[in-house]
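seq/struct pair 1
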Amino acid sequence: MNAPQSGIFALGTASHAYLEFDVRDKGAAPELLTAVAGLREPRTTMGGVNLVAGFRPELWRAVVPDDSPVMEGFNRDLVGPDGYTIPGTQHDAVLWLSGSAYDVVFDVARGAIGELGPVASVAEETSSWPYRHDRDLTGFIDGTENPGLIDAPDTAVIPNGDPGAGGTILLVQKWRHDAIAWESMPVARQEQVIGRTKLDSVELPDRPPDSHVGRTDQERFGEIFRRNMPYGTVTQHGTMFVGFSAEQRRLSSMLESMAGLTDGTRDALTYYTRPVTGAYYFIPSTEALRRCIGM
């Protein structure tokens, strides 16, 4: 049985870094896979770091065609009927590092960049941290509908027998908040936008159809496993969306619904937050990644 990369489910880490890379030479995809696979993952200890690695699906498929799920990169912008745009900023590889403190994450990230430097350059870098335990920077609890750790692999991991078994599909996006507009609204209006109460995250019985909960209803689109985190500075910040699924369609359908492509109704939250990056990555199983060493 192929095992997923353990860092996907390593909850409770306080510091995060997301590094996206572009290969320096388009013909060097095998070398990139080998270099990423060769990174040594420190074990999770009090001072350890979790490392999750993934690849542009087209790049992985070109090198490992027999172990590739049905998916594609975020190669085109998603444009709603009113012109609202969810950008595709696809890169070739991603590293997500998480640990107990940012100093160890920082050191491991620098080391990884150095190891990959001959074959790939950093195209996007973001650091994240928890806010008030489990809230995002809107002040609402994030991940209320997340499956528990026992059920999360069934949601996120591609099952045995399917191409890419033991791996998962990652959607990573940076959503920048309009904090002034959001915080100028009374809590009751914020709750209508989200579709939940702010204090304890109870779903509103009369949630509006354009509420964020309504537009991303997992009973409709299928469950995903989210590892979202706040990012940014005091003056410019937002949410790093980190969503895993065994099927890409669950993720893409939610984005289409948020943009209003399904019925012309846009997610009310998108009037207060704007995506500035977006990429899909295949996160191979540990066995598949190990096979890339020496490729």
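seq/struct pair 2
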Amino acid sequence: MTGSDRPAALTHARPATAAPFFCSEGLNKRFGGVQAVRDIALSVQQGEVFAIIGPNGAGKSTLLNLMSGVYQPDAGRMVFDDVDLVGLPAHKRARLGLARTFQKIRLFKRLSVLGNVAAAFHIHHDIPPWQYVVHGAAFARDQERCRAEALKLLGFVGLEARAPMLAASLPYGEQRMLELARALATSPRLLMLDEPAAGLNAAEVDRLLERIRLLREGGMTIIVVEHNMDLVMQIADRVMVMDYGQHLFEGPPGEAQRNAAVIAAYLGA
């Protein structure tokens, strides 16, 4: 996919410096008597795929919720491209360029496939407010631009032919890809994927892998929480392993497979 066929949301400049694109220090989150995240620090470089793995209940999704603004931390700090994220709600983080998918799919089931993706362009509308009430030429041009970009994104995930269908009518694997397209419609600079391969068959996982590779080639920074170790080993530049809400290991995927503590806690002795 090149030239005018490539959605604008998929192309990002390569990093000019080695400074962290996203970093956190001392992140903590407690739910009653459960310490879900304990003193987590991480650093993600622009343009890399950073994977977070660990057993069920390790705190991975909670950490992603802290990054995306679903939760606020009890303590610690997070910085994205020199902007302090602590205290910012999720919608303001989205405008900064953070987007995510969810472990449990959250589509607008009664909207069309095209409508789901077009809805995510709302943060990039550039028309006078009054045209939302009295639709004029600027409104029509903006709607057509959003529709054209949405169709390109659907083509990217292989769903262009499904555009007029209701989202609820798609099979599970295609709903996963639709959620990815909708996240990409916000033009993210940091894309967070929460178990994107969950429930997918082998062919669908291969298709997802290829999409992630293309995004990385375009310069997008990606954080992925995943249980599918084959996917992680093929796509991740670095891996962080969590256990009981704490940092256990960080390094290249191959080293994670050989680390004794990781094997005991997650991969299985």
